Amino acid sequence: MAQVEDELSLVFQALADPTRRAIISRLRGGPTTVGELAEPFSMSRPAISQHLKVLERAGLIERTADAQWRRCTLRTEPLDDASAWVDRHRDEWNERFDLLDERLRRLKDSAN
Amino acid sequence: MAQVEDELSLVFQALADPTRRAIISRLRGGPTTVGELAEPFSMSRPAISQHLKVLERAGLIERTADAQWRRCTLRTEPLDDASAWVDRHRDEWNERFDLLDERLRRLKDSAN
DNA sequence: TCATTAATTAAGGAGTTGCTTACATGGCGC
DNA sequence: GCGCCATGTAAGCAACTCCTTAATTAATGA
């Protein structure tokens, strides 16, 4: 089951696809139309549209209408949240190891 | 389609589920058996086993047999990769904005 | 007005996910 | 060995994902 609603899940899920990550990378170069975005991929336009919908649902892009073009712009706030989660977990875990290391070292010292 | 093979996709996909993120959070407290891990969730054991398989496939945990228990241990290397990707994309994008800001400021100054 | 261009929506299909219950495996103490 | 644990695997099911092609919407410019 997915029926994910929480924001973090939506962001990680959006990042879990190589095509979508490539789109994000591409968008760092600046706002881009769907057609330009689709060009390097061997994939139909609708497929790209659907990927963009996933990214939009996760808050990672914004789409604004500009005549018959849709300009896609990157938003980084959700990336901040994702980054915060990952960093928090990684760091606290490493801290635990550092602590353990030190304790072991001390144990070893006192044994000598 | 999924049939993901690349490591980053596996990691993000693993992190895209709240139950699995909770398991990771729980594992920061130290290695834990599957039973202890399953206890706080209103979910069958096999469901937890399957979540653990996803985490293992992404390289986020290690399972070692210890008599009839399996001890699950957190691994943070994949988190490093995920964090690196997110940070890289976020930071470069913000740099672009900083640059744009500066350019606009300069433009404005020269106009006065 | 009408054809062209850009993009989305609709419908459908193959494969995956996330759960379930039932069954299998394998170590333990008696 | 036998019956208990703690887990894992199998099978099945509803929902979701990722793609397709065909039809639709909407703006443009002659």
Topology:
Two copies of one chain form a homodimer.
Chain A lengths: L6 H9 L2 H10 L4 E2 H5 L6 H13 L3 E6 L2 E6 L2 H35 L1
Antiparallel strand pairs in A: 1-3, 2-3
Helix pairs in contact in A: 1-4, 1-5
Chain A binds a DNA duplex (30 and 30 nucleotides) through helix 4.
Oligomeric state:
homodimer
Which two chains have the most extensive interface, and how many residues on each?
Answer: A-B, 30 and 30 residues
**CATH architecture level-2 label of chain A:** Orthogonal Bundle
Strand content of chain A: 5-15%
Supply the helix-strand structural class of chain A.
alpha+beta
Mean pLDDT metric of chain A = 84
| Number of H- or I-type helical stretches of chain A | 5
Helix content bin of chain A: 55-70%
Q: What is the rounded Rg of chain A? A: 21 Å
CATH topology (level 3) name of chain A:
Arc Repressor Mutant, subunit A
Main beta-sheet annotation of chain A: 3 strands, antiparallel
Protein name (chains A, B): Metalloregulator ArsR/SmtB family transcription factor
Domain HTH arsR-type (chains A, B): 1-94
InterPro entries (chains A, B): ArsR-like_HTH, HTH_ArsR_DNA-bd_dom, WH-like_DNA-bd_sf, WH_DNA-bd_sf
